[in-house]
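Lecture notes, continued. The same structure-token format from the folding unit now serves as the input rather than the output. Read the line below as a description of shape only.
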């Protein structure tokens, strides 16, 4: 099912960006973006104008996956597109960038689920180009090694049929896990301090936020993490920004030591949610606000009745 969403995001994205006045016809790589760093190429499309109107088609050799697109509209910098995939109806919405004319970022939604996606102009014509991988800070590489070590040892222990060897591997796995727990947070903090402009800093901030209950960070440090995460989400448009803010708020309120810090974000998200947003999004925003108010020791008749 996940691959379907990825394919849908691909076609959706490719069309809108290509038809912007400042973006030429040509071939575009369509990708699904996972987190702040990951980009998975999904399709290659050809964009061209026919009879003065925008048109898009899958490049030769690219699987079409039964996806069809229609109702492309460009209103100022906002691009929308309707598409059908496997009987499901989806809407893509993206914003044309001011600085990068070779990339468009946006969201794809079926009214319930929302995905990040991106479109990149190809310089090599009809051949799929590999995404440009951002340089990995040495701290991230070291953290990945520390995180992987206990996982590998546990796997080896599970596969071992020798009781003594299994016990030895399990002991090593515990020691490796302890080392990772002690060192990885510090490495993530270094990434944020020394590589704040790198997408890996966003990844580090997200990982730290999820562990914040154990790490007991100061409020200003949490604020720095949240700022990085929100800034990254914002480039994908309001739907992704709202969904990310909800996730961050839910992460905070779900950790006893940080729950009170969720209130400002919960209030901002709840005010920003519109009547036209999916009911699931509206419900999440109200539920988050209710929990955040409770954690902050604040009573609100409106949200209290929702909780009841």
């Amino acid at each position: 099912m996940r691959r379907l969403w990825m394919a849908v995001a691909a076609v959706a994205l490719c069309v809108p960006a290509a038809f912007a006045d400042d973006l030429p016809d040509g071939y575009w790589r369509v990708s699904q973006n996972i987190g702040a760093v990951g980009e998975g190429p999904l399709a290659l499309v050809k964009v061209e104008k026919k009879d003065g109107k925008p048109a898009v088609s899958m490049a030769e050799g690219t699987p079409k996956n039964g996806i069809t697109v229609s109702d492309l509209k460009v209103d100022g910098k906002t691009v929308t597109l309707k598409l059908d995939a496997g009987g499901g109806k989806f809407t893509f919405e993206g914003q044309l960038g001011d600085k990068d004319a070779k990339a468009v970022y946006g969201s794809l939604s079926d009214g319930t689920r929302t995905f990040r996606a991106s479109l990149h102009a190809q310089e090599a014509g009809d051949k799929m180009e590999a995404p440009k991988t951002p340089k990995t800070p040495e701290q991230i590489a070291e953290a990945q090694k520390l995180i992987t070590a206990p996982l590998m040892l546990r796997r080896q222990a599970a596969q071992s049929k020798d009781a003594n060897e299994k016990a030895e591997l399990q002991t090593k796995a515990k020691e490796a896990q302890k080392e990772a727990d002690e060192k990885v947070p510090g490495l993530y903090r270094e990434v944020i301090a020394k590589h704040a402009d790198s997408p890996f800093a966003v990844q580090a901030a997200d990982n730290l936020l999820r562990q914040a209950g154990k790490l007991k960070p100061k409020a200003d440090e949490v604020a720095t993490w949240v700022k990085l995460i929100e800034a990254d989400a914002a480039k994908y448009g309001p739907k992704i920004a709202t969904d990310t803010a909800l996730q961050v708020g839910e992460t905070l309120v779900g950790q006893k030591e940080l729950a009170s810090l969720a209130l400002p974000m919960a209030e901002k998200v709840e005010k920003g949610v519109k009547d036209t947003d999916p009911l699931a999004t509206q419900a999440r925003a109200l539920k988050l606000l209710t929990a955040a108010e409770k954690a902050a020791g604040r009573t609100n008749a409106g949200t209290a009745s929702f909780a009841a």
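Point for the exam: Strands lie at 26-34, 38-50, 53-58, 67-75, 78-85, 88-96, 103-109, 114-121.
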